User: What shape does this take?
Amino acid sequence: SIQMSTYLQHAHPQAMQLLQQQQQQQQQQQQQQQQQQQQQQQQQQLQQQQVQHSSMIPSTHPQNAAALY
Assistant: This one.
């Protein structure tokens, strides 16, 4: 693989640049996908917490519930 890359660098410098750009783009896309997945998980957790709080608050603290809204 090393011999191929050195051959490409000498023979096709533009091709090497294209290959490197493609690799960088793929890495960036993977990172973005991971970040999106993490954000979705956090949003789901927040929604679950909100549901738990809203079901608890009215029965125990009606004044606090009114203050929140």
